[in-house]
Design brief:
single chain, about 160 residues, mainly alpha, two-stranded antiparallel ribbon, 2 strands
């Protein structure tokens, strides 16, 4: 192992040595109160979950799923069996959406920053795991599946009503 003050020739070190050197550097940086740049870039400590998008993005997803349930209720709620299945779907939807909303509200109440607004979100840049997108493209990618499912539920329900 090389002393901390000498430069490291990464081409001549093995993977195990490189990991040991990097972990030592990270440990020293944390002890000195400075985080490694990669850790700093990936750290979301203190951030509110979901803060990267304005609330309107999340509302559009909630509306699409409510549309699915409403279309199902209108088209298929004809007997007790269907009502039970749709009722269970409504309960599951409430649970699946209530938990993230409660987490967000709790984190928001402890946050120091103000919530994001829609403002210029559509033209702003959004970093994703696969690259940078505009806010409009990110919103489209988030909303396309729930909206397509809602449209499909509507069309299937309309076809079912026409047949019966």
């Amino acid at each position: 192992m090389q002393p901390a003050n000498q430069p490291v020739n990464r081409s001549s070190t093995s993977d195990a040595d490189r990991r040991a050197i990097e972990s030592d550097a990270d440990r020293r940086a944390i002890e000195d109160g400075v985080e490694h740049s990669e850790q700093n870039a990936r750290s979301s400590y203190g951030a509110v979950p979901g803060e990267e998008f304005p609330a309107s993005v999340y509302v559009s997803v909630f509306v699409a799923f409510a549309w699915i349930l409403a279309a199902s209720l209108i088209a298929f709620a004809r007997d007790a069996d269907a009502n039970l299945a749709i009722g269970m779907a409504v309960v599951l939807m409430v649970v699946f959406f209530a938990l993230p909303v409660l987490v967000w509200l709790t984190a928001r109440s402890h946050a120091r920053s103000s919530p994001a607004t829609a403002g210029n979100f559509l033209t702003s840049r959004v970093e994703t795991a696969t690259g940078t997108l505009t806010g409009a493209n990110a919103w489209l990618q988030i909303a396309v599946i729930p909206t397509a499912l809602a449209l499909a539920a509507t069309l299937i329900g309309a076809a079912s009503l026409l047949v019966h």
